[in-house]
Write a structure and sequence with these properties.
213 residues; alpha/beta; tt1808, chain A; three-stranded mixed sheet; 6 helices
Length: 213
């Protein structure tokens, strides 16, 4: 019988233990969020301003649920960064199934949004309602990234509760490890949202051009 990922991996400590994961804080492991950021197209600046104003308008009325966070912030941000255009494909509510052979257990869950290129995962988006901390979604996001069927390639995650965004990079390999960006807060400043868009564009631009499968 399968266990829900949310139940099977409730804490970061358990994610570390069950997947033999370790966090890497070396700058060279996750340079995509720190240096050489790709410029956004000229029209993106105005689009991001409009996006942020819409989000702030809705957010000041109260807490937003997960679906609203995706609709108001995450989905438009992915579009501005080019993830809705070739060669990328978007899959919503993607099903994940992990078999922990050495532990005799199956974990399963559903991603909010999965962006793929050439059969390989680029961005896994895990959104939470604004009342929840980003860190509450990190254990299950790592579990989802471990479900990447191409363990030889790195995969990237984006966690957002609307007010904040956090980027994750995971490489399985022989010794699985992951890195984290700093937390970006578009709720606090417009420049934070623009930099998050640049990071997404950088991740997209550094991938080899291919036809999605």
């Amino acid at each position: 019988m399968a266990t829900a990922i949310l139940d099977g991996i409730p804490t970061l400590a358990i994610a570390h233990q069950r997947f033999n994961l370790r966090r890497c804080e070396e700058p060279d492991f996750f340079p995509e969020w720190q240096r050489g950021l790709s410029p956004l197209p000229p029209e993106a600046h105005g689009q991001l301003q409009t996006l942020r104003q819409r989000y702030l308008y809705q957010r000041t009325a109260g807490q937003l649920l997960e679906g609203a966070v995706i609709l108001l912030l995450v989905s438009p941000l992915l579009a501005i960064a080019g993830f809705y255009d070739p060669p990328f494909l978007v899959r919503s509510e993607a099903s994940i199934r992990l078999e922990l052979a050495d532990q005799g257990e199956i974990l399963q869950g559903r991603l909010d949004v999965l962006v793929v290129q050439d059969g390989f995962w680029i961005v896994v988006v895990e959104a939470k309602k604004t009342a929840l901390s980003l860190w509450s979604a990190l254990p299950q996001t790592l579990a989802y990234l471990m479900g990447n069927p191409h363990p030889e390639r790195p995969s990237f995650g984006l966690i957002s509760n609307g007010d904040d965004l956090l980027f994750v990079k995971l490489h399985q390999g022989e010794s699985p490890q992951y890195g984290l960006s700093r937390v970006f807060s578009p709720f606090a400043a417009a420049a934070e949202l623009e930099q998050a868009g640049q990071i997404l564009k950088t991740i997209a631009d550094q991938l080899p051009s291919a036809t999605p499968t």
